[in-house]
Amino acid sequence: MGRYISTTGTSSAVIVEKSTTYTAQVNERVLANTSGGAWTLTLPVSTSLLVNDVVQVMDPTGSFGSNNLTVARNGAKIQNLNEDLTMNINHVAITFIYTGTTYGWVMSGT
Question: Could you tell me if 41 and 18 are in contact, meaning their C-beta atoms sit under 8 angstroms apart?
Answer without folding.
Answer: yes
